[in-house]
Amino acid sequence: MRDVAVVGFAQTPCVRETDGTTNGVEMLVPIFHEVLGGLGLTKSDIGFWCSGSSDYLAGRAFSFVSAVDAIGAFPPIMESHVEMDAAWALYEAWVKLQCGEVDTALVYGFGKSSAGQLRRVMAMQLDPYVVTPLWPDSLGLAGIQARMGIEDGLWSERAMAEVAARSRAAAMSNPLAQLSGPVSPEDLLDEPYVADPLRRHDCAPITDGASTVVLAAGDRARELCERPAWITGFEHRVDSPSFGTRDLTASPSAVAAGKAAGADGVEVAELHAPFTHQELLLSQALGLGDITVNPSGGVLAGNPMFTAGLSRIGEAARRVHDGTASKVLGHATSGPLLQQNLVCVMEGRD
Amino acid sequence: MPRPLSAPLDVGFDYTRSTGPTLGRFLSDLRRRKVTGIRGADGRVHVPPLEYDPVTAQRLTEFVDVASTGVVRGWSWIPEPLEGQPLDRPFAWALIQLDGADTSLLHAVDAGSPDRISTGARVRVRWRGDRVGAITDIECFELSDGPGDEPVEADDVTMVTTPVHLHYTHTASPTEDPFLRGLMEGRLLAQRCPACEKVYFPPRPACPTDGVPTTDAVELSDRGTITTFCVVNVPFLGQRIPPPYVSAYVLLDGADIPFLHLLLGVAPEDVRMGMRVEAVWKPREEWGPTMQNIDHFKPSGEPDAPFDSYSQHL
């Protein structure tokens, strides 16, 4: 295996609504400038580009092709795209680097959720014969999962509110967060249900945003970054899309991805958990114990669709870059109710 | 700065899908007021039926009749239903394990209020009157410990149609916005890239060569050159003009990117690359933020432009 590291990360502020287009160009141009400028690179130094986004979210065909304008793709570049969270684009780029074809890659994702009705758009990822025609909304489905865990004694509405309160407190140190500030779980529990047993604080906010991560291999990574976040494990696994056959209070795919990636011993984890109970479920599945989870506030503090998972990996890598941790974990999820899970373990070497 | 122009866009499409043997059986049986599952590799009965086992990926073929009554295994409460959902009054989403099944089906329960439903509650199917062979043939479930309805005769279905309607608000980019506002006044406003100095019409959010936002507005005349064209001979749905007619790429004087428009006032066999053209505008009272303000282009009568003048813009 080639040594490959995350060497750069940039993200836009997480906001409820931007003025820009749904092809993301206005959000991407400044963060490309920031991440490349920070590394002393220009676009011609990047060997491979890969993105994650969704046309259903954008409400237009081939939005990722329009997004390429933000790169300035002339002369022609080597480029690819996944219709998933950009964490999976990062996986594709990592494979590309493993193949030895290139030494650097820039990965990005973007989503303007405010353009449509996110709860309905998310129904498009469900089984098109027996589920989508009912238009289940993402909050309604997550509410079923949350109740099953509550009634099995795995978590409680109180524990869920504590996750939300901890997220918003942590996000006070994150200037790009959408939701932050001191709140008490008691006050949160006084709020009404939006999809009983879920209250608003249990659900990640609707967010517009974009983010980008730069990968580099071997000596190139050492040149670009004082303390690269070397990827020591990168795995993704999937459970059945037929969620009525699954035990929704467990996540076999997260367990398997965590084991394969070597999650043992991580000091900090950034989890892509769009609902409070899912953070509790994932912490358990990945065996995280009492370590620091979501010091950025996580997606409960800002959830730019199709790049929030990539941002988790970028946030985790930053803890290695700045020397505050030596082994970290970034997680991403995709599909309904934690169907697919990706784990990226990164380490600093002194 | 005022917010950029924005407008609603409603996207709709009726997805038609063939059902195949497994889902075809399930959906045909729903039409008959029957629910059918399939036995998995581990002996579990899956409802809805799966084509392949979720663990072993083995092809599944043994259909099993199950009841149209069952028990709620998990639920959430939707106080404000969204467009397209089974009920337009508050309802519960529930995973329902039908009697005889080992897995759960997602559907709506018409429970009235959240304090009337609980995990373990008995429910039965409320069938739609006009069944077509779709999951929506189950109108919803209702709280009841009574028996299910008797099946009836119906033909098989092999196709299912799912209408999808999504609603968006699209916003113009900061560079598209002055272009669209200019059109409302009959002005053609392009943008110049500060790096390569190319002039884009219509403007784009960023220069596709340099990846930087275009910053300088440039007003163009409504004259230009045909860079290339095609003669449309094929009729299609929504066509405005009877074929044959000419669609042409017009490079406005001073622009670096041509755009597609309609060319009239010349026989198709007389159209040439390099032909000089001018805009024919609609009456001013019909103008809006759209390129349709220009009804079409027509030959201007000027001598043809030399090839070198547009060879870099093909």
Structure commentary:
The complex is a heterodimer of chains A (350) and B (314). Chain A contains twelve helices and twelve strands. With 350 residues, chain A is of the alpha/beta class. Chain A has two domains: 4-116 and 206-229, 3-Layer(aba) Sandwich (Peroxisomal Thiolase, Chain A, domain 1); 118-204 and 230-348, Peroxisomal Thiolase, Chain A, domain 1 (3-Layer(aba) Sandwich), CATH 3.40.47. A ten-stranded mixed sheet of chain A has the order 3-2-4-7-1-8-12-11-9-10. In chain A, strands 5-6 form a two-stranded antiparallel sheet. Chain A is globular, with a radius of gyration of 19 Å. In chain B, the strands form five sheets. Chain B has a five-stranded antiparallel sheet with strand order 7-6-5-8-9, with no helix packed on it. In chain B, strands 16-15-14-17-18 form a five-stranded antiparallel sheet, with no helix packed on it. Chain B has a three-stranded antiparallel sheet with strand order 3-2-4, with helices on one face. Chain B has 314 residues and is mainly β. The mean pLDDT of chain B is 96. Chain B has two helices and 18 strands. Chain B is elongated. The interface between A and B is large, with 63 and 65 residues.
Summarize the structure.
Chain A is 33% helix and 21% strand.
Give Rg of chain A in angstroms.
19 Å
Number of strands of chain A: 12
The span between the termini of chain A is 20 Å
What amount of the residues of chain A lies in strands? 15-25%
Determine the number of helices of chain A (DSSP H or I, runs of at least 4 residues): 12
| Spatial strand order of the main sheet of chain A | 3-2-4-7-1-8-12-11-9-10
Overall mean pLDDT of chain A: 97
Instruction: Tell me what the CATH architecture of the largest domain in chain A is.
Output: 3-Layer(aba) Sandwich
Largest sheet of chain A: 10 strands, mixed
Top CATH class of the largest domain in chain A: Alpha Beta
Q: What structural class do helix, strand and pairing data of chain A support?
A: alpha/beta
InterPro entries (chain A): Thiolase (IPR002155), Thiolase-like (IPR016039)
GO molecular function (chain A): acyltransferase activity, transferring groups other than amino-acyl groups
Organism (chain A): Lentzea guizhouensis
Protein name (chain A): Lipid-transfer protein
